[in-house]
Design goal:
- Chain B: It comes from Bizionia saleffrena.
- Chain B: Belongs to the Glu/Leu/Phe/Val dehydrogenases family.
- Chain B: Keywords: NAD, Nucleotide-binding, Oxidoreductase.
- The complex is a heterodimer of chains A (47) and B (433).
- Chain A is mostly loops.
- Chain A contains no helices and no strands.
- Chain A is globular and about 20 Å long.
- The two termini of chain A are 18 Å apart.
- The N terminus of chain B is likely disordered.
- Chain B is globular.
- At the A-B interface, loops of A face helix 1, helix 3, helix 7 and helix 11 of B.
Chain lengths: 47, 433
Amino acid sequence: MKVTTINLCQSCLHVNPCVLTTLKELVFSCSEFDEINEEVPYEIKIR
Amino acid sequence: MTIATTAKGDKKPAAKKGMMENVLEQFNTAADKINLHPSIRKILSITNNEIIVHFPVKMDNGDVEIFTGYRVQHNNALGPYKGGLRYHPTVDIDAARALAMWMTWKTSLAGLPYGGGKGGIQLDPSLYSKNELERITRRFTFALADNIGPEHDIPAPDINTNAQTMAWMADTYMSTRPPAERSANQHVVTGKPAGSGGLEGRDRATGYGVYLTIKFWAENKNIDLNGKKFIVQGFGNVGYWASHFLETEGAKLVAVQDAFGSIQNQEGIKVADLFNYSKANDGSIVDFPNTEVLDGKEFFSVECDICIPAALGNQITEKNAHSIKAMLIAEGANGPTNVEGEKILLERGITIIPDILCNSGGVIGSYFEWLQNRNGELWMLDEVMAKLDKKLKESYNKVHAYSESKSMDMRTAAYCIAIERIEKAYIQRGIFP
């Protein structure tokens, strides 16, 4: 994927310290994604 | 880029540049290779249905908010639409279209009786309480009404949605049916909790699938996995389970990268110990005993035999493909290798097990859950794993044989197989009227 309109990083708990990518505006899918709100249960990665 | 030509030669407006363009590019490359019939190319270049619903939900403070939800149904030539629902502020129709199309290829390649769909709600879940999210989910399900259904369109969890979300959806959908039909509609969604029609072992299905494709590759090449070194990017569900099963074959985990940092030990890292450590350290693998810290940029050039990018896209690029030491890349994540990176890897003779094959264990697990509900059965864990093994072996062997016979890489072969299967269905059925 070169360009995407989805940007997961902006609402991810790890957005600032994350070392996985510098292209944080391009991430549409990530196994490390954790929503900032802890009340929301974790993503289940089964599609 | 023009998506398709409509009747009487009217042109659709140029599509927004983005994910859709990329997915169409992959589709057109494969379609050219197989000389796809022009009419079928037109059909597959565009989505069947795009549902946008605006629905009101009462918040905890009594206010009413209006939400926008999407469901894109790309193609159902092979069976009901299948794909995830995500809750995220950046969900939009373009992204849903692209991901729905991707699901069509994935389910087709896996040999499942499904088409492709995707959708979600444009919202930031961090702004809502659990009760509000439940009402939003239930109202969205009600708004979608008969646009979903166990034999029509079967949603699944995705970003920010999970087993609980699916349980709410199933309950809401079933409640809208006549009493005698309610139980027969449990398979309207997959990814439900194990106690509510969910599948045993669904948590490990994708990671197990990644491991299986690596095992099949090794068997084909007559390579013993015992003692082979592997690295994993992402120690979430997929990365952990793939590592767990590889370790049972005697393979050695030598480096891991997660959102917090990268670690290495060429003597081996015990998967279970790292998992327990990460659980006790807020999900971080950093400072795991007896490992050295790696610079993030060095991660993909670590000495190893197998590399498993299982976190996110665009990780193997023209910048690092030259320095990769592995002889196999198993794509646990979606789109981890970009076009330029792949070209370099292939020139260097490095095999890539493409994402639509490598991480298809998850959607196959979904199919098993659907079948289980549909047939009124409850499968044991060992049964599920054995069925996954059989299904994935079939897919792997097809892709391997196709790529060998046509002298093409496994990704192109996978796309060709997926599209040819749909083409065959259209040729057999014809186009109504």
